[in-house]
Write a structure and sequence with these properties.
elongated, 4-stranded parallel sheet
């Protein structure tokens, strides 16, 4: 290809940031250049697309970023893009910059935006990036492993002080509609109880009883992990104080779960997914979501991907209960 007829692809990150997004951006740029494309970075997600905040990226642009958390392209949520007028404007902007394809890194909401662009004739390729691991079409999302390790480290530290002071600690972790972080970190952190959006909360059975049973066995410190989506952290604390006679401490981990240098798994998965996203566009398999299935990186049609569902299995919940004894 000569400079005058090179095809162009754009890349953006949308929604919440996740460690490993930079690895995916780096891979998209390098794979794009490898396959003969000019690659353009779009700043601030769909808001940047609407504003035309689009500029060329080179191999140098993505040097020394694979170890960095967050996203060098920055991200946002764009209410304007959620309107028909916003989608039309986004498609027009993509055509103005002569983009032959767009790689979108984000979650289900970002993918729905990409699907809207696809319906306007803009070829898209989507990469799952969210710490919640709640994208149904894929076994794994970029950022999840790093978040798990961040929470695990926090639980270990809080557990040290809970032991030292004979204390009960409630740790609230991210997960509005999905309890993957809460469940797996409760198991890894040896928590006495885990509160999940996927399981209706019975405070007496799920929280009070495990504490009392543990105390009757001579235990004097307790860890409760709760997903933020349950929304009852204060209520749980009040019930523990009233029924057990312990005043719990509450630690809301918040946005520290999104930050930090990505783990090896997130760097490698982000890299492989980034290459796959470009390969799908290059081969003409447009409007696909990159997914991890049984250790393989594959592409799925975006409508099919968005129609899928997944949830925590009853076995995993049972296993967590058994291991908390």
């Amino acid at each position: 290809m000569t400079a005058s007829n090179k095809k162009r692809i754009g890349v953006l990150t949308s929604g919440g940031d996740a460690p490993g997004m930079n690895a995916a951006i780096r891979a998209v740029v390098r794979a794009g250049i490898y396959y003969g494309y000019d690659v353009f970075g779009i700043e601030n997600g769909y808001s940047g697309l609407l504003a035309g905040d689009i500029s060329p990226m080179t191999l140098r642009s993505v040097s020394e970023i694979i170890n960095r958390g967050g996203t060098i392209l920055k991200t946002s949520r764009s209410p304007e893009f959620n309107t028909p007028e916003g989608v039309n404007r986004g498609a027009e902007m993509a055509r103005l910059f002569k983009l032959d394809g767009l790689v979108v890194i984000g979650g289900d909401g970002s993918f729905r935006g990409a699907r809207d662009l696809a319906k306007k004739g803009i070829p898209v390729s989507c990469i799952p990036g969210t710490i919640d691991n709640d994208i149904s079409c894929t076994d794994y999302t970029i950022g999840y492993d790093t978040a798990l390790n961040t929470v695990k480290d926090a639980i270990d530290r809080i557990k040290d002080t809970a032991y030292s002071h004979e204390r009960c600690s409630i740790i609230e972790v991210m997960g509005r509609g999905a309890g993957y972080i809460a469940l797996n970190c409760a198991i890894a952190g040896g928590a006495e109880a885990c509160v999940l959006p996927e399981k209706p909360l019975d405070i007496d059975e799920d929280v009070i009883k495990p504490i009392i049973d543990g105390r009757n066995r001579g235990k004097d410190h307790f860890i409760i992990v709760a997903a933020e989506g349950v929304g009852k952290t204060d209520e749980i604390a009040a019930e523990i104080k009233a029924k057990v006679g312990i005043t719990p401490t509450v630690s809301i981990l918040g946005y520290i779960q999104r930050g930090g240098s990505p783990t090896v798994r997130d760097r490698v998965t982000g890299s492989l997914m980034g290459v796959k996203a470009v390969e799908l566009l290059h081969s003409g398999n447009i409007n696909q979501v990159v997914a991890s299935h049984s250790g393989q990186i594959i592409g799925l049609p975006i409508d099919e991907a968005l129609a899928m569902t997944k949830t925590i299995s009853e076995y995993e919940i049972l296993a967590s209960t058994i291991l908390s004894l």
